[in-house]
Structure formats: C-alpha cells, structure tokens
Amino acid sequence: MQSLVTHARVFPHRLATSGHDxxxxxxxxxxxxxxxxCSDSRVVPALITGSRPGQLFELRTAGNIVPAYDTAAPxxxxxxxxxxxxxLQVPDIIVCGHSHxxxxxxxxxxxxxxxxxxxxxxxxxxAPPTRHLAPVPAHDQDExxxxxxxxxxHAQLDRLRTYPGVTRRLAEGTLRLHGWxxxxxxxxxxxxxxxxxxxx
Length: 200
Prior knowledge:
By secondary structure, the chain is α/β, with parallel strands linked by helices.
C-alpha cells in the first residue's frame, strides 16, 4: 500500500514535470471507447492501449461479464454501458478477455464456489457459454481456458447487442463492437474475427 500512497502523493509533480496538462478535463469527457474487461489486477487498460486520461471509459467486472439489460432490476454495469452509449456516445466498445482468467477458469474447472456465493451467482447468471463444459485438469488450464475465455468474449458482445442503445446505434452505423483477448504473460493482444482470435 505504501508504494501506492507514495505515487499518489507525487502524481501532481510527475504531471508537471512530464508536460501533461489535465486542466482541459474539467470541461467534460469525450472518451474514444468503452473498454469492458476483467477486474483482474494484471489487466491494465491504459497500459495495454497507451491511453491517457479522458480516452477510455472503463467497466471492470469479474470475467468481463455484461449482465442482461433489465430496467426492473438495474445494475451498475448496465447503467455504465447505457451512459457510455447513450450519453457519451462512444464510437467503439471493446470487450477484452484475458489468459489465466480465474473467473472463467473456475467455471471450466467446475470449482466449488460455495464459499463465495456472490461470485458463484454472478458467474452462473452471466457466463452461460462456459457452463456445462467438461472440467479441465489444473495442469491443462492455461491452454484450455483460452478458448472458453474467447467464447465468453463473443457471448458478452452478443449480450451487448441486446441493449436498446447499442441495438439502435449499431443499426445507425454509429457504433462498432470489438472482441479482444489479452495474454497477461506476453502482453500480446488478439482481436476476434470470423477466423478466430488473431494478432491485432
């Protein structure tokens, strides 16, 4: 924790000496993309994309999961997506899964999630493409979890398409959706396509 406090304390000084000026951000925001990714601490959107303050509107959830759109039981995640699409008018949405994902890996390996019931309910509700798969032995998990994670990215893109604002803007041609897969151990980013996930 102390290293975080130290960096936060000197952050204004580092900004001043690096020539970065955040003053313009007080006028509002116009991010280039909504970046939906996992809460995993090894995934750092600004580091991966080289973005600066104001460029990315971020949503981080366990397993980069997009919940179903339901105004009767609104979620913070749905509100974030709706705000980005309908108010900020982001032109692009990126859903980024990653290697060594504990959330998807737990589903694939059929781990006992009873000790963490909120996690269990979240994953069971929101990640149907990874349910009912044959359990993967722990020693095979790195290679075999990659495909379920990538399928999960596509599933979350499909769920995004059911959001009214996303549906409307896709039809208008004012919004683009992207699926990415990030390898935490190499830094490589793959983009989803009809031919699978390929290097950007």
